[in-house]
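Write out this protein's structure.
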Amino acid sequence: MKNTPSDSGEDKIFASPQSEVAPFSFNESVVDVFPDMINRSVPGYGEIISSIPKILRHYIDSDTLIYDLGCSLGATSLSIARTFPTLPITIKAIDYSDAMVERCKQRIGAYNYQAKIDIKQGDICLVELAQCNVVIINFTLQFISRDKRQALLSKIYDALKPGGIFILSEKISDEDALMRERLIELHHDFKRDNGYSELEISQKRSALENVMVIDSLSMHKRRLREAGFKHQSVWFQHFNFVSMMAIK
């Protein structure tokens, strides 16, 4: 393994009062602290990343093609490559953020696995998908306009080979108002326990408003059905964060 780039800083982006909180974006400042930010903000993130390769054991062979859509710094792609070090699988990792893509290329380049990981910048709603075995979207659909989500899932279904698997991880909004508020508070407690202050929690929430638009679990299930997936299930949930699998 070569030297990895510096993206291991502590997330202090919202630690100081801001007179006007700008909309959240995956810029260079976020990239510099992203691993710390997501692990301290998303309950179960590490478990999801480490569990995905275990799920994929039944779907991977030497000529497998995997799409990692909204790949950020490549944590999912690296987890898969690390789990199957001798298989020459192909992973196409795509992210919209130029800063993420450049740093992801540096991170992937620091390792030497048999898997071919091709990292590109692009809009996953517009990119053409080849016939594939696996598609993964982790905490990315929530940043895409609602009116584009169904078309994206339908495109994924069409690209998957029969028996292929789609893994979708998202923050969700409970349809029961009381439970929704309870889960939000539990999530905030999780962030407090991980060292975030009330100011940081409040300012980040403001930054994410109208940028991250979350759906209910039933909406996600409905979209998957409309895309064509007859077999789907939630395989992981921690508070209001879930990961689903759907099989073509």
